[in-house]
Amino acid sequence: MEIAGRALPEGSWWDWEVLGWDAGRLRLAAGHDLTYHHGLEVHFLSPALVSCPFAFQDPVFRPPTAEERARLARSLGEDPPVIVAFEADGGGSEPVTCLIAAEGVEIRPGPVRRAVPGRPDWPGVHLVTD
């Protein structure tokens, strides 16, 4: 699986969710089940346009179409350096088409898991973001 020409590490990246979003960064988490933890984060730097649900599953990333590129150039006044297009399960009866335009993209591992004895909410495991 690739995002903007960058290969994702091996893993089960079925479940996706927005972790945070401000003018400087859109942070997406990915994993096989985001209920407990995530193994991957994708950060879009200086997002100019984001059209995707807050949470989605099973994305199929693809190159943007010529029409999508032209629409972004008209809307933003220039071609953004990073354009990510994909279809995903957004919870409806049909897949949703998603589009993200940004200045850059970073692919990072998810938070580190460390054992903490006696933690009642998740015995033996504590999530730490370093």
Write the layout of secondary structure elements.
Layout: E1 2-3, E2 6-7, E3 15-22, E4 25-31, E5 40-45, E6 49-51, E7 55-62, H1 66-76, E8 82-89, E9 96-102, E10 104-109, E11 112-114, E12 126-128
Antiparallel strand pairs: 1-2, 3-4, 3-7, 4-5, 5-10, 6-9, 7-8, 8-9, 11-12
**Residue fraction in strands:** over 45%
Tally the helices.
1
Largest sheet: 8 strands, antiparallel
Q: Measured on Cα atoms, how large is the radius of gyration?
A: 16 Å
Note the overall shape: globular
Strand order of the largest sheet: 6-9-8-7-3-4-5-10
Question: What is the total number of structural domains?
Answer: 1
**Whole-number mean pLDDT:** 86
Poorly predicted regions: 119-130
Helix-strand makeup class: mainly beta
What is the N-to-C succession of helices and strands?
A: EEEEEEEHEEEEE
What level of helicity do the residues show?
under 10%
Total DSSP E strands: 12
Separation of the first and last Cα atoms: 26 Å
Notes on the structure:
The protein has 130 residues and is mainly β. Strands 6-9-8-7-3-4-5-10 form an eight-stranded antiparallel β-sheet. A two-stranded antiparallel sheet has the order 1-2. The chain starts with a strand and ends with a strand. The protein has one helix and twelve strands; from the N terminus they run βββββββαβββββ. The protein has one domain (2-113). Mean pLDDT is 86; it is low at 119-130.
Search tags:
130 residues, mainly beta, globular, disordered C terminus
In brief:
With 130 residues, this protein is mainly beta.
